[in-house]
Model the fold of this input.
Amino acid sequence: MNLENEHSAPEADKTSSTESVSPPRPASFFQERPPQVMEVAPQVLRHWTRRDVLLFGAGAVAAVAAGGALLPQAALKRLGIIHENKSWPRKEWLLNRSLRLDDDVAEALYSIDRLVPTYSKSQITPLKNNYNGATPDPSYIPEWRLTLDGLASGLSVSLNIQNLLASFQLHEQITRLVCVEGWSAIAWWAGLRLDDLLRAYPPISQGKWVRLESSVNLGPWGNPDPYYVSLDLSTARHQQTLLATHLNGKPLTVEHGAPLRLIAPVKLGLKNIKAVTRITYRKDEPADYWAKRGYSCYDGI
Amino acid sequence: MPHSTHLGEVIATRMPEGQSGVCVVRRHHLLVRCSHWLNVPILLGLILSGLSIYWASPVYKHKPDLLNGNVDPLADVGIWICAHVPGLDHYSSPADWVYNHISLGPGMLAVALRLHWLCAYLFMLNGLVFVIGSAMGGGWRSLLPRGADLREAFKMFRYYLGVSLAKLRRRSWMHPRFNTKYNPLQRLAYFSIPVAGLLSVLTGWAIHKPIQLYWLTWIFGGYDKARIWHFWLMWIFILFVVPHVILVLADGWDTLRSMIVGWSTRTERSEDFSQ
Done:
């Protein structure tokens, strides 16, 4: 094929010839190239085929075995592949590793200076009571106190809601609460900044973590089941991380964690602990209620 | 068929002196082949775990059923199946039947999320393998849509619709002639899939990090809409795979083999499939 024909050839082919259609020669970088043909001895071709089919077949068997092993035990039991519970430490290690990797990515994306999008009052949506267990009886509210531990002063501080409302400025924000289950709600919160509390009662100097606990939390049958979350100090110092006292302009109801709950819109809803009774500053990462149940630890969104 | 004049040059000869060999044409780069097959377990893992995640908070709901309080259409399907399929009348949780068979099962959110992240990172890595392979082999050029593709793809669609009927009636049914690696319908499908893969990754990040990547979430119309995008993109893969597998099997061993070994003995490009 010569280069002079390059532009006219495809047009001519369409009209005249049906026996031999020329593929267009590449006229641009994006144009499809003609096929590369090679002549190979039949025995060589058979050898290549055998080699590649065996290699890809071995890969497929390995992928089925590895993929199958990664399925949860309940699914494998339902499929009739296993009949009793087995423990595979390596599988757990791999799956947890991917969870940690994802947490590391979330941490890398986080910036203390990046503000969370806020909404207008017309965009507010209903917020459901998502207490995992039973909703606590409101009788705890009158005696409620917030205890602070792990302070630089070495003391333990106990505050009631009047102390908090009197000593700290309240900030309002309309932000989205995103649940790990996939639903979300836009809600209008007001409360004090956790950062302000941190300034008023500084943590120990090596402190990197905050543990927030609710001793009034209940399990599904109304049994006491304290709820606790871990929060990195950088998220705690974000200006939109609130200890909320109000929802929709009214003091929090028992369903939403009266009298004080955490609102950290940069985290999944499960970190937004209700009815906080104790805040402890720590050097090491504290345990987390849902992380213990197989969810991630950092939960940044 | 006349010996073609348009094969391009025979680029390599691995022939002993005086013997004639088989002409083969390169079709798929090794990395493209690897990423193609790796998609099978990865997508399966993503779909199984993804449906479990979806079920933690379904988007498509109806008013609560008066009898059982159920709101999910797929739970209705499960209840119907268990009531009407012989042998399933004692199934312990009919509302879970569909999810038990197409996902990891209900109440598996933590497990499903872990598996979904693992598969999602592997899917992104695999996408990278595909991009590198297509760049090295130059195969990406064969996927790019052309001007007349939509019209020409319709011709192929009509061919596929009529071909089985024509075979039954022993009539001839001409395969449209194309001188490109893929016919326009294939090209449309094979181009759409990497695009759908990319959109799945982007919508996935949009719902995974709606605060830090709020601009990405905004592009897809907000958090709730991005979830719906992500959900329907899954169906594109499922709807693609069914005809894809049927057509490869119908097309024969050479096509299937070419995705394993990388070459094809079909060196002609304007093939005539008339029978």
Observations:
- Chain A touches chain B through 71 residues (CB under 8 Å).
